[in-house]
Amino acid sequence: MAKISKSQVRAAVKAIIEREQREGMASPILQINESNRVWIRRNLRKHLEPVFSEMPLNKDKIQESVTRHQDEVGQYLKKQESKTAKTPFYIDEVVRKGLGEQASCH
Amino acid sequence: MLAEDHIESGNSWAKIIWEDSQDVQYKETSVRFFFAWTNPFDYLVVINVSADLVARGQCTLTAFPGLLFGGWTSLFLTTQLKVHLSGVAIGGHDQEQEITSFDADTWGSLFGGDKESRSEDVFATANLSLKQVLVDPHQLVIVDVRMIAAYHIDNGTVSLIFARDPPYVACPAVMLEILAPPP
User: Which residues of B touch A14 (CB under 8 A)?
Assistant: First the structure.
């Protein structure tokens, strides 16, 4: 019976690591919803922060940006897994709260 | 990053210190223990594989407020067992066991957001197993036991320290149960 050598084991492990780097790791299910949330949040920031930097604050512009963002979220989610379907409700809540607080500052 | 490691039959462990502050939609870092076994028989066998992975350390997440939006950082700490046979991986995410998951979140400073930090002490043992794996005669089996930290950073930081108290991250052994009788 041939015993396996350390160098054979090392070579096998190296091959495993190289294959994973080449093919990429399978995405765990837990990643899908969370990484979509990150994308949505960044996209909203991308549209809203330039508007907020122009003082005084213009609510129409904010609403316009939010609408544009929501359109883009819709397009983005179409390309994603169906599991992300509930994500926009979260961001709607963030926007509503943000706008509510903003309105109360005026 | 691997701060220190030790390989010994029944006492293999690794010390890990990992810090990241770059915004990232998804990133993984992992600690892996590889075990090798060759089917010594001239016939195909069926094996059950199991391993315990012990993790003891601390995870800290921080989120910073931007002007309008607050930062958000989240972490999933899981364990996994895979068996590699001639370039084919068996198991993986379906065998995954969560150790902990949490996040740090804050509002933008316009809305009163402030720096938010959350820490969790981890001292957990994951019992991982994979059943009924077919192994050809004299085939090499590589068992891959790992702890995976998957995270997102949006204006924040992630810190993992498994280097202060033993056993840090340890996988002492893999148990193989040979089920198939000789032909």
Answer: none
ipTM: 0.77
- How would you write the pLDDT of chain A (106 residues) with one tens digit per residue? 457 788 888 899 999 888 888 876 655 545 556 667 777 877 887 787 777 777 666 667 766 777 787 788 888 888 775 655 554 455 555 555 555 555 444 4
Is the Cβ pair B84, A41 closer than 8 Å? no
3-state secondary structure of A34: helix
What is the domain partition of chain B in residue ranges? Answer: 2-178
Domain spans in chain A, listed from the N-terminal domain onward: 28-105
Q: Do B76 and A41 touch (CB under 8 A)?
A: no
Q: Do residues B94 and B143 make contact, with C-beta atoms less than 8 angstroms apart?
A: no
Q: pTM for this one? A: 0.74
